[in-house]
Amino acid sequence: MSDAIEEKIKNYRTAPFDARFPNTNQTRNCFQNYLDFHRCNNALSAKGQDVSPCQWYQRVYKSLCPMSWVGKWDDQVADGSFPGRV
Predict the structure, then answer these.
(1) Is the pTM of this model over 0.70?
(2) What does the similarity note say (predicted)?
């Protein structure tokens, strides 16, 4: 992974502006980053590659999403009943 990307991940503080979600309500942004993290993690793990680039999505969803939602989603992913495609 390039040094610039590693530096950005290291210095990350809160979710940056995302033009796909211009409104104040960031619920969809939260959910999308949760999905993106799991998709990235699954795709890179299946290829045997380093999954550290996926940490970006994890940090974004952890800063946007209430932890109660994340806990519920993690349980649903483990049970196989999560409504999104991960």
Answers:
(1) yes
(2) Belongs to the cytochrome c oxidase subunit 6B.
Query: What residue type is 84 in one-letter code?
Result: G
Structure tokens at 67: 């932890």
Task: Please give the Cα distance from 84 to 69 (Å, whole number).
Answer: 14
50-74, pLDDT tens digit by residue? 998 899 899 999 989 999 999 999 9
The burial class, CB within 10 Å (0-12 / 13-18 / 19+), for 83 is exposed
- The token duo for 33 is 């980053």
* CA-wise closest residue to 31 among 71, 59, 69: 69
- SS3 call for 59: helix
Q: Quote the CA–CA distance of 59 and 61 in Å, as a whole number.
A: 6
Take residue 15 and report the two structure tokens written for it: 């979710």
